[in-house]
Amino acid sequence: MQERAVPHKGPLLALLGLGMFALLATGCQEEGPLQGRKASSPAPGATGTARQDPRAVLIAQYRVDVIATPYDDALAFNFKATITGGPDSTPELYCAGTTWEFGDGQGWAAIPGCVPWSPDLKLRRSYEFHHWYEQPGEYLVEFSYGPLKGSTLVRTGSESPDQ
Question: Which CATH number fits domain 1-9+62-157: 2.60.40, 2.70.98, 1.10.287, 3.40.50?
Answer without folding.
Answer: 2.60.40
